[in-house]
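Possible regression after last week's pipeline update?

I re-ran a chain I had predicted before the update to compare outputs. Posting the input and the new output here so someone can diff against the archived version. Not blocking, just want to make sure nothing changed silently.
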Amino acid sequence: MKRLLYRFVALSLGFASPLAFSADAAPVSDMEQVLKNLVEENQLIGTQFVAIVNEEGLVSFDKFSQETLHFDENSQFLIASHTKAMTSTLAALLHANEEIDLNKPVVGYNKNLITNHKVDAQSITLKQLLTHTSGFTSIQHSFKTAYLGYADQAELVNALNFNTLVAPNKGFRYSNTGPIVAAMAFESTLGKPWQNLLNERIFSPLGMTNTTHEVPDKIFPSIVTANNGTRFLQGHFKTNQTMHASGGLTSTVADLSRWLQANIKQSLGNEKDSKLFELMHSKQVEQDRQYFTYQRTGYTLGWDVAQYNTETLLTRFGTYAGYSIHVSFMPEKKIGVISFTNQDIAFLLPHVIANYAYNTMLSKDNAQSLLAEESQRLKQFVDKQRLSAPSPSQIVPADGKVNSLIGSYLNTQNWPQMTIYVEDNQIKVSWGVLEGVLLNVDGEYVAHFGSISRPITTSMNDDGEFMLTNGSLVYQQQ
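New output (post-update):
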């Protein structure tokens, strides 16, 4: 284990009896070995880490990797949906400073954002957008912001109002839509992009110098696993354009430790911190959902309120392609955990190791039995995912048998162009900014883009024109 903060012999974390985080502390001494066991038991090939944070900052950082790529506290990786917690904190800070009003309808910021007649834009507030209780979403908007890209803000607004899905009520329904639209709204008022505001108001004051909305040149890649356990694809699978306010930030262990420390201390160095963290850490809406081992009971402005092993946590996880990140903390105990994998089939591993870290630190009698139980669940998940993983043998070769597929395809409902082409003697597919390979899976075509895969079917229309269907989206060859 790599030990940090050696100057502390014992730190009282608000427990009945203080825990020691010194160099010889037993509670967290076996993290690296547990990580190693989880990796080897599941024959994983990626990089995993677990970091423990308290009021003083980063306490410990353990990693285990089967890769040759260097990874340390300053390596950058995608934090995916943990971005929502940061975007919401920015909104809470702006509200506390009276620069925006979270209870004000979104039309008061930009009347041209929500124009679909099915949505009652007059009654939807920024707070509802951030707490996933606005009652609407758009599939096209979600795809363009997360995966496909878009030409400009006008196209994004059109996508938001195209084929909009409206729920029967405004109960909690998690999606990317709300925080993205909220950021677009307060950008209209303040005249600055949400990314710049985050940097000015949160990242710079906290010293988070390696947290950014731009895809770094040396970002640590995610791994899409093949069914034989090797790498099928590797990459980030995003461009700067698809780094959005619900899932578009990269960060590091060092920066996330500063961020988590600020949440544990409830301090951004702002005189309105008490108002800010009341919004961020107290339940704003109810939810009743089981997520792995966590019973989610509510949602703050940007964190899930959850119960695990009789303890209350605030959690905000993130997943995208091979990335899976766990970020959580226990407000009463004043400790937090950051854990991560970059391999898709190991999606649950960050939660297993985070749970073990908490249970060990809190001297839970069932720490070992829960580790065994959760490790078995992880193994079952990994085995199942590996069975359905893509195979290199499924990649369609450029052998002339599918020449009729090659070409460009257009959709009449503003979905981006698709192109099927030959590269490296393989059939490749592009869709918007995504690029991937064409697979033949048991006689059916599948376009695999790393972050998503889509079923592809072909047909001829009545006019003899070649048609392609991407999921349910109809395209015509040009």
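Follow-up from reviewer: compared with the archived run. Confidence is low (pLDDT under 50) at residues 1-26. Marking as no regression found.
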